[in-house]
Every structure is written in structure tokens, then in C-alpha cells.
Amino acid sequence: MATNPVDCKIAEGYNWGHVGKLVPAPNWTVGWDGAGVVEAVGDKVERFQVGDEVYFSGDVRRSGCFAEYCLVDERITGRKPRNLSFEEAAAIPLTFLTAWEGLEEGFNLQPDKKPKSEKTLLVVGGAGGVGSAVIQVAKRVFGLKVIATASREETITHCKQLGADYVINHHKLQDQLRSVGYNSVDYVFNTRDATSNWKEVADCLGHLGKMVVIIGLSGKQIDLSDIWFRRITLFPELMFSRPMFMADDDYTQADLLDKVAEKMEKKELVSTQKISFSFLNLPAAIKEQDAGKLIGKQTSLVEFEESKPQ
Fold first, then answer.
1. 154, pLDDT greater than 90
2. Residues 136, 113, 148, CA angle at the centre, nearest 5°?
3. In a domain, 304, yes or no
4. Has this prediction a pTM greater than 0.70?
5. What three-state secondary structure class fits 208?
6. Which of 220, 236, 252 is the last residue of a domain?
């Protein structure tokens, strides 16, 4: 299992009981990144059988995987990369689904097909869980020139190791962008709260640019006039949207996870698992996640006494 920012909010006693609205949900089991072995399958399951090793993010409307057993829909489950441990695999699903969906659907890019002309992507918050996935997928799957933001020596090194062509500071963003030779970029993948850095980030986009945001634009007013005149496309990315609304035959996320597994096995992508913690220290790990200073992902093995589901 791995931690994510969504665990922090739901650990406070809330859940998406209604689409787009957090409601009280006491005693809800958190955890929306996991890997494990299939113990049982339903009558309609076709992709997996008992004993298969799988990985998944799950459905935020259902209790999560910080438990001995959990239920997950096969339509949002992939086969675990064979070359990775369960902890390394658990660090992948939520962030890589977010990255891949945002890049392919938000920017209308085609995987493994390099753009005819060089396209530039600014990743705001490159060292976090999602940013670490975006850098890799953007560079190695979609063939983009990647500029990431990071401010600490260790986060700068992390972004470069993952393939970022340039790493700049998020302060005075346009000046930083010009310092590496660009007046604007074609795409922005903003992993931060867009209401806190809206103008600075939006000003980095050129005419017909596109921006993906992963945190809801709520609670504050933002001025859309600049992006209106430049015809900027704003794309909200939430990988939990598919589990909420998917059709019976929608296996998009399962297929994406299988593609990611193939690329992990070929060493074209790497797990962003950085820290392993004891499951007994889960409350401290949730606090660490909430602090927003993690590099990559933190994971743990969920170990219980030998037992079988009823």
C-alpha cells in the first residue's frame, strides 16, 4: 500500500459519498494505492483468477486498501509488474493513471508517437508523487521536452534523475522559464493547488496552450480573462472519475495499468517508491503525507496473522 493526499482528507472523517461533495464518513478505511494477490473472484470476473498478482488504485467511494483484504473492480485493476516488489508496485497506480490520463486526454497526445515539432511541458511540483510520474510519462511515452519545478537540492536531483530536461524554481516562474531559453510552454501539468499559483502558472502558457489541474478550483475566485484571450484549454484531471461513472465495458484504467506494467518491466518507466514505513506507524505516515514535503511515494506492507476471507 502507498499513501496519497486523498488519504489525509478522508482520514479526517470525510468521503465522497456524493459526487463532487465531501460528506462525513467516520470509520472509513483509507488507502487508494495497493498491490497484492487475488484471494477470491466474483462470478463475472474474467481478467483474473485466484493467485494472480495485481495492483490498483480503487474507488474512492469504497473503503480502501489499508486493510488485510479489500474489494476492487477488475475494470480498474492491472497485473502487477513482474520485476517490482509489492511495495514498489503499490506506489504506481494513482499517480501514473493521473499522469497518463492528463497527458493523453488533457493534451490530446498519442502515446509512443513523438510530436512532429518539439512540444514543451511545464510540470509544477515535479518531485511529488504525481509530478514524478508525469515527468517520466511525458518524456518517455509522449516525447515532450520537460521542464519541472523544484526548490531543494534533493528534489532538483530527483527530477533530473527521472528525465526532466530542465529544473527551475517555482518562485518568479516566468523569469526562471526564460533562464532556460523559453518565453512560454505548450502545456502545463499543475500538481499544486491552482488557486494558489494561478496567474504565475497561467502566464507561462502560450497561445492555444493547455493546462491540466488535479486539485479542484474551489473556495477562491480566479481571473480567467488571460486564458480566455489566449484560448487556453483548462482540463481537470481526477482519476477517480472513471470508477465513479464508467460504463460496464470501460476497461480503460485496467488497460493503462497493464501498459504501465509492460513499460516498468522494460525499464522504460520506474517506480517512484522512495520510503518504506511500518504499517504500525500509519498515522505518522499520513501526517508526513499531509505535510507536502515527500519526494516520490511512501509505502508499507500490510501484514496480519494468517487468515482467509469468509
1. yes
2. 30
3. no
4. yes
5. strand
6. 236
